[in-house]
Amino acid sequence: LHLGADLSNGCVQGNDLRCPFHHWDYGPDGRCVRTGVGDPPPSNARLFSFPTREKYGVVFAFNGAEPLFELADLDIASDEVLTKVSFMPMRAEPWTFCANVPDFQHFIGVHRTLRDDIGHYDRIAWNQYGLQFEFTAFPELGRAPPIRSKDGEQGTGLILVQGHLPDGRWFGTLAAMTLPRPGETNVFIVVCIRKSERAEQGDEAADRLLLDELTTRFRAMPAEDLELLETAHYQPGALTRHDEALGRYLQMLRTFPRANPAAEFIR
């Protein structure tokens, strides 16, 4: 709020955010607490402070003055979980990735994880800002052991999946999305597993190898979607009976609150 430098290029100093240009420091409430040369900060040097949560190894900011919903919890306590975070850019907006979750038809042709009996849509629990349902994936259309999971979405940029691997081990994976500019998405892919007994004793090597393997596996699925989502165009009036869940999600998108709470701070 001095000469308009981009604070995403700055750094954190203690609990303050430092501008890279003239080293003005902004506190957690957005107020400038000091300038780099000691001049008193202007009284109007105050940033918008987004509601935040630190969860699953990621810091979330809600695009609004007050959050519309609370982030869902994992089924396993955080101190029992190991996580790995990776990053995947996409040339499409976050809602298109989210729309993939209730689009059950594409799990047959693209991911080969769902058989023809795709009637999951009648088991979806909807709420005002999201959905949740139980899902059974049949890798390679049943030529590998099935994986049962609980899948959910919150808002227009968060997918959360929890379940058990064929050996009974709990896992969780989520895609947390940002919109850096129109038509682009930064997807943060978080993979979680329950710590093994050896990891509890300080030997995490085997668990870290499993995290790496699952990260590769869970990144492969959105990678199969990337080119399709980057070129797809959603057209009204062309859905079929098996698009019932997708159609309901798209309707939720149309009524989802729009917000730009920081507008007056960044003009």
What features would you describe in this structure?
With 267 residues, the chain is of the alpha+beta class. 23% of the residues lie in helices and 28% in strands. It has helices at residues 94-99, 105-109, 139-142, 197-200, 205-231, 244-255, 263-266; strands spanning 11-13, 16-18, 25-26, 32-34, 52-55, 58-61, 81-90, 125-127, 130-137, 147-154, 158-164, 170-178, 185-194. A 7-stranded antiparallel beta sheet has the order 7-13-12-11-10-9-8. β3 (25-26) and β4 form a beta hairpin. The radius of gyration is 21 Å and the shape is globular. 19% of the residues are buried. The model has no long low-confidence stretch (mean pLDDT 89).
Question: Which term fits the overall shape?
Answer: globular
The percent of residues in helical segments reads: 10-25%
Residue runs with pLDDT of under 50 for 5 or more positions? none
Helices and strands, in order, run as EEEEEEEHHEEHEEEEHHHH
Distance between the termini: 10 Å
